[in-house]
Amino acid sequence: MKASWDIFCSVVDNYGDIGVTWRLARQLVAEHDVAVRLWVDDLQAFVALCPEADATATQQWRQGVEVHLWPQEWEAAQVADVVIEAFACKLPEAYLLAMKARPVPALWINLEYLSAEDWVTGCHGLPSLRPDGLKRMFFFPGFEKGTGGLLREADLIARRQAFERDPQARRAFLQALGVYALDGAHLISLFAYENTGLASWLEAMAAGARPTHLLVPQGRIMGDLLRWLDVDQLPLGTVEQRGQLSVQALPFVRQEDYDRLLWSCDFNAVRGEDSFVRAQWAGRPLLWHIYQQEEDAHWIKLKAFLALYVKDLSAPAAQAFTELWLAWNAGADMAHSWNAVLEHWPEITAHSERWCLQQAMQADLAQALVLFYRNWI
């Protein structure tokens, strides 16, 4: 019989949590032939990523995954063989009681947030025994051996490379979104939280030597963008021109199309965890807007990744890249660091592809989870 998996997702940060768990659920079904129930407490966020889904359904099947609305009042449900508590979302008490009563223990996994910090490899796979006898295993995605790896479908890199070899496919995809960029223009995507440093970056691009076409999917950065443009709204598809910079708003698209958008651009500004990982698989230079945490704990995570990522860059390129990321996440002036990155553009671009291929040599997150379960039983 197929192993059964329950994945619990509480939508905290718009689309990050559901983005990761929805990708994971689909991949487990498609590549590992397991039965997956995805429990989600906000179906509106799910519909944004899977437009054919029904935001009012308490249960529905989507791409082989049984998707359930996480009820406020939990009723009895059969416990799965593997239970994934995504990002410490806290399982319902009734479900925990059912886990205790299960004749054969379920594998309970706390799927943690992605981090490049040194301690991750030492904590990955460790158990935590509760006073009630239930045992929870901690599973850490990561960038190095000894972690759970990154979410990556088995054919992802091959699909991206095939897309890159087909200029007509790229052109058709962009035109379907209403994007007609000038020949020779830098194409940049921008998906970010609110950021006071945006204005300085936009001004630097507007004053640049090369045209830039900025694509902005609907999201929280839009207010800062409208203020800089000095307009009340930017209807979807409309292009606003400021110097060498063209700005265009795009609709929020499903995950598969967002991947293609990242593949189509020369540079991608992303936020959170899901789009951060997908931008790395795009093999393009990227800029990460990390989710802010209390007491500035996010800076430790950001700097840990930067230290790992820039190791193989030349010192000047590494400095330019690092300063750009630090300025962006501090909401500081970005003009100097952006222009410095442009000076090292070919090196940083080549490095982005090398990093992608190096990471793809590791087991992906879904594969690592399945192997972890097989070893556990």
Automatic annotation (TrEMBL):
InterPro entries: EarP
The name this protein goes by in its record: Protein-arginine rhamnosyltransferase
Record-linked Pfam families: EarP
Lineage of the species this protein comes from: Bacteria, Pseudomonadati, Pseudomonadota, Gammaproteobacteria, Pseudomonadales
Stated family: Belongs to the glycosyltransferase 104 family.
GO molecular function, one term: translation elongation factor activity
Keywords: Elongation factor, Glycosyltransferase, Protein biosynthesis, Transferase
Gene: earP
Job description of the protein: Protein-arginine rhamnosyltransferase that catalyzes the transfer of a single rhamnose to elongation factor P (EF-P) on 'Lys-32', a modification required for EF-P-dependent rescue of polyproline stalled ribosomes.
Organism: Pseudomonas weihenstephanensis
Top-level lineage group: Bacteria
Reaction(s) this enzyme catalyzes, per UniProt: dTDP-beta-L-rhamnose + L-arginyl-[protein] = N(omega)-(alpha-L-rhamnosyl)-L-arginyl-[protein] + dTDP + H(+)
